[in-house]
Amino acid sequence: MPDAEYKSWGKFGIIATPTVIISDTADKVLWVEAGYGHNFAPVVQTRLRQALGLEDAFHAEQAGQVRTVANNTVSARAKRHLHMAELLKKKGRTKSAIREIEKARLLDPNSVPIALEVGWMCCEAGDAAAAIRAVGKIKGANRLEKSKLAMVLGWAYRLSGDLDTAQKYLLEAIQNNPRLDRAYFELGRVYQEKKDFENAAKAYFKALSGIYDVK
Q1: Which pTM was predicted?
Q2: Quick one: 136 and 58 in the same domain?
Q3: Residues 49 and 61 sit within 8 Å (Cβ to Cβ)
C-alpha cells in the first residue's frame, strides 16, 4: 500500500512486504499475513471468505496453521523486525529503525548480533545511554564478540563524556581484536579530547592503516 510516512505500518504492526490486512471500518484487525509463504494465497482467500461470512472460524484457523508454524517463530519475527530496521535505516529514519531493532531485541534479549546492531545505531544517532543499555549486560561467547561489545561500549562512553571508561573499553576491544579499526578511531577521539595529541595521532594512524591496509 502507498504509505511513505509508515503511518499504517505503525498502526497495524506491519513489519514486512507484502502484507495483507483484513479489518473492519473501525480498524479492528481480523488477521494480518506477511511474506511470500507457499500457503500465502490460499490462506488469504480463506480469511477473506471468513470476513465475508462465507467461511467459519474453525476452518479459517485450520487453513492458517501452516502459516503459524512457518512464519510465527521467535526467530522469524525477530528477523522481520531487523529487515524492517534495515529498510528504515536506508531511508534515513534512524530512530524508527532503532525502535524496530529494539522490538527484535525484546524477542531475543540475549542475541549478541541484535544487541550490537542496537548499540551501533544508537551510537550513530548520538544516544549514548540507549547504546549502553543495549550492550552493557550482554556477554560475548568469543573474543570477536567481546571485542565488538567493548568497542560499542567505548564509543558510547566517549559520547557520554566519560573518557576514562571509554578508554578502558576501547583498549579491551583492541586487546581482543587488534584489527578492529573502529576501536582505534574511537580511541583516537578519546585521546584527542584528553589533549593527548601524540597518542591520538598514533591511534588514528592505526585506524587508517587498517582501513587502507597500510604496512
Answers
A1: 0.60
A2: no
A3: no
